[in-house]
Design goal:
Number of domains: 2
CATH class of the largest domain: Alpha Beta
Strand order of the largest sheet: 13-12-11-14-15-16-17-18
Strand content: 25-35%
Largest sheet: 8 strands, mixed
Number of strands: 18
Number of helices: 13
CATH superfamily of the largest domain: NAD(P)-binding Rossmann-like Domain
Helix content: 25-40%
Structural class: alpha/beta
């Protein structure tokens, strides 16, 4: 049984509210053009999943509206045909969106009218064409379904609105059974947060100092679906900051993902592990299935992939890092200790434009993984950046950075810092005991964050547009 969901960029959601929720109370309609992430097998359910992502909002011209009232909306299909043509050109799916003034469900009239619109879409764009249908309520709540034929539709199990805030729309939200283990958390942040966290699918890319700390904390907040990505094994040199790992793991050369997954076995959660680089095709379904990703890798190639993934799939990625600079004296002193959390998402400045990623080093890392002899040859000839000394790290600092990232996620879901509390990049200077909020400006020539062209496209060939 295939399932389906939808991610809407916050700017598109706000535009839909502006168009559909009229001051006179009458219903209105618009179109949403969506990319798609097709997931052959969801890592947690094993089922196929179709995850749609908003790419653009298309208004229906006023002259195209036949009639409207607080109880109905009727419009000419010319605008739908034009949207279908655009969707076919860009390999997108059309979502018909309209408002309801009272009924928080599809009406009998919707049930009667939409199959004929599906028929029109399939005659225009081909028999495999699907059509999304969305209803927006005055409260801002959304419900939706995916028509796969004139007779069959699939309810959307989850609608995500992502941006400076993250809002989840799903059946029975705020009407679930409270979980006693998280009662005190509900007293502080509300029962709805516990329910939202329980439905999220979360990826952790990199299971070192920051990633292992994130993994230990998420189940204690109520996250129930986790995917761990890391190629490396446990070594004695990283035991001091690797939560969930022990000396026996280093001796056994146990993969980090296995050591951490074992430490999570006592929780009632579902953990999936991937002992490989995220560039590996085997990771794609899992990455696309995640609602949230914590980027805890320290390699530039991995960050480069996540940097594009965040925009093509509108998946919030919380990238983090720790930079320590110490003196070269016999008794080292810390000259600089910066912990960083950067949120990657449409309308946010990407890691390339912020100077976090070194593209040359990313190239060299990929070469080392795909063609080691060539990498060694170029390294000897000084054509690649070779490995230097290991970077200094302190477990309290790496753990604190992990907490910074999780707190930013909680802010975007629950808003405990207030409406303006979301921060696109926060740098904590541990040695100065201060935080700095860094806005950052996109490079006007950046193909990722300075233009909307790739935002929400979803699956493209080649993957993420990388040749």
């Amino acid at each position: 049984m295939t399932t389906a969901s939808l991610t809407i960029q916050e700017s598109h959601y706000n535009k839909l509210r502006e168009i559909l929720l009229r001051q006179d109370g009458a219903e209105n309609a618009a179109y949403l053009l969506c990319g798609e992430a097709f997931i052959e097998a969801d890592p947690w359910s094993g089922k196929p999943h179709r995850k749609f992502i908003s790419h653009a909002v298309v208004e229906i011209p006023e002259e195209g509206i036949v009639s409207r009232s607080p109880m109905h909306i009727t419009w000419k299909t010319d605008s739908l045909v034009r949207s279908l043509k655009q969707a076919q050109t860009q390999n997108l799916t059309v979502a018909i969106t309209h408002s309801h003034s009272e009924l928080a469900a599809f009406s009998e009239q919707d049930d009667a009218n939409e199959p004929s619109l599906v028929e029109l879409a399939q005659h225009r764009n081909g028999e495999d064409t699907c059509l999304l249908s969305l209803i927006l309520m005055p409260t801002g709540e959304l419900i939706g379904r995916l028509w796969v034929s004139q007779q069959v539709y699939i309810p959307l199990t989850l609608i995500r609105v992502v941006g400076k805030s993250i809002r989840l729309h799903y059946e029975e939200r705020e009407h679930g059974i409270p979980i006693p283990a998280f009662h005190r958390q509900a007293l502080a942040l509300g029962e709805a947060l516990n329910q939202d966290l329980s439905v999220l699918r979360v990826g952790i890319v990199g299971c070192g100092g920051t990633g292992s700390a994130v993994a230990m904390l998420l189940p204690r907040l109520g996250i129930r679906h986790i995917a761990l990505f890391d190629k490396d094994i446990v070594e004695e040199t990283n035991l001091n900051r690797l939560h969930g790992a022990f000396t026996s793991d280093a001796i056994a050369k146990r993969p980090k993902v296995e050591a951490i997954a074992r430490s999570l076995e006592g929780f009632n959660i579902h953990v999936r592990t991937y002992q490989t680089w995220i560039n590996d095709e085997i990771c794609r379904d899992a990455l696309k299935s995640c609602d949230i990703i914590f980027g805890c890798t320290d390699d530039h190639a991995g960050r480069l992939l996540l940097n594009r993934l965040a925009y093509y799939y509108a998946t919030p990625i919380f990238d983090m890092g720790l930079a320590l600079e110490v003196s070269h004296s016999n008794a080292p002193t810390i000259l600089c200790a910066d912990g960083r959390v950067t949120v990657l998402l449409p309308e946010h400045t990407c890691l390339m434009c912020r100077g976090v990623i070194n593209p040359v080093q990313a190239r060299d890392e990929n070469l080392r993984r795909t063609d080691l002899p060539e990498y060694e040859r170029r390294k000897k000839e000084a054509y690649v950046l070779g490995e230097g000394n290991p970077s200094p790290a302190i477990v309290t600092f790496t753990t604190d950075v992990a907490i910074m990232a999780i707190e930013e996620l909680l802010q975007r879901i629950q808003g405990f810092r207030g409406e303006t509390g979301s921060v696109s990049q926060r740098v904590r200077k541990f040695h100065l005991m201060e935080d700095r909020k860094q806005r950052g400006e996109p490079n006007p020539n950046c193909p990722i964050c300075s233009t909307t062209n790739c935002w929400g496209l979803g699956d493209v060939e080649p993957f993420l547009g990388v040749v």
